[in-house]
Amino acid sequence: MPSPLAELWFRGVAANSVASSDVLLRLLHAAARAAWKVLCQERPLPADVVDAVIAHPEQSVRRAFARNRYATPAQRSRLLDDPNALVRADLASGPHPRLGRVAALPDDVIETLLTRQDTSDHGQLVAADEISQELAFSGQIPMSFYREMWAHKNPEPRKQGASWWLWLTAEQRNALLADPDPAVRDAARKHSLILDPAAMEADLPEADCHHRSLLLVNYAVSRTVAEACLADGRDLWSLDDTVRTRALVHPLPRTWAERQALDRVVGRTAEDIGPVGEMQVEPDTDWYSACAISTQSLLRRVAATCPRLPRQLVHRLADDPDPQVRYLIAYNHPLAPPRTVLDAFIATPRQRPYLLTLPHLPRTGLQHLLDYEDPDVRRLAAADLTLDRPPIHLLTDTDVRRAAAGNPLLPLDLIATLLDDPETAEGATTNPSLSAERLHELLDRTDLPHTATE
């Protein structure tokens, strides 16, 4: 007779960091469906379990693995030719949740997803073009691939490469404008207008509309258009705080890359910005280093988004009087001091899911946070393996008891009791002090077969 705790145990075993392959493979049985999301999407998996997941007949198993942020790009890429379009779409969409920079897919996989055409099977739920769009917004295409798209042997990547017009050299732009494929030439002509004030002026609608706003904000503005706007007191919102602030803290000349580095910081808090992505063209590290020692706090915030800063400047920014600088260096630099990362975790709740992925977020020495007012902080402390005593008092804390139940400092006899309590069973089953034999015993109590095909 299956235990009423079965689903709790399934999810807990799936999340147990030391569960062996033979334990995890049992969870691929249909009776343990409740564990599939945790097992296939929310943890790293041994190679033999990955093999079983890739070959699993249930699309929900394969779809979950396609979104697994712990899996390597090579492992997830094995789903490239999955017969189910939804699985391929999830591969293109990338890991979920998307926390920080995403590992890039191999170039050949990217090329296939970008250029694949629909088959004659009209029963597909997702079109090849939709899958390509998912990939484009997934963060899985490295900037090195984007930088070479203009010269790709396939016209579709060349067409997409034209969208990076501002970052292309004059030679690259001319090559796209003269491309043998008419669709590529057309895309190049359209994108070239961004730097043509006369073309922008000719295309500018007189009536207020979205297209007018788009042109004024993103395209080169002719003197005639600028003078008309100033004379009529119209569209002056385009000279908003970002433009004025940029001019005040960083006078011309500046490169497009420097402008973009400034714009992703101006007018936003560190918590809003979070970890920043790679740009098509990055400013020189020397430019970021100069920003790091500026008297302007905004420029120091810009510097704190650069993961290439030398160690001495990282430690300088980690002690910056502006907390926004300290939080940004915690999000973006692999050498940020652990104390700075912990401070950012406590102070910026919306970035906690990302900060929990960082290896330099302290996981020990957190005794002083066991009774912190914020439950997220208490949960972090409750899992500390170096506490001077087991966090037994937190087992009655509704918000924290799952984490407390998973702490291996708890006595084994107490863990055994927690396993049979619906309030703590799932958390206790994640406890790494449980042996493979004990985990098998729990699964046996649910009548779960020993193989996924029984």
UniProtKB/TrEMBL annotation:
Biased composition (Basic and acidic residues): 437-454
Database matches in Gene3D superfamilies: Leucine-rich Repeat Variant
Disordered as annotated region, ranges: 424-454
InterPro entries: ARM-like, ARM-type_fold
Protein name from the UniProt record: LRV domain-containing protein
Lineage summary: Bacteria, Bacillati, Actinomycetota, Actinomycetes, Kitasatosporales
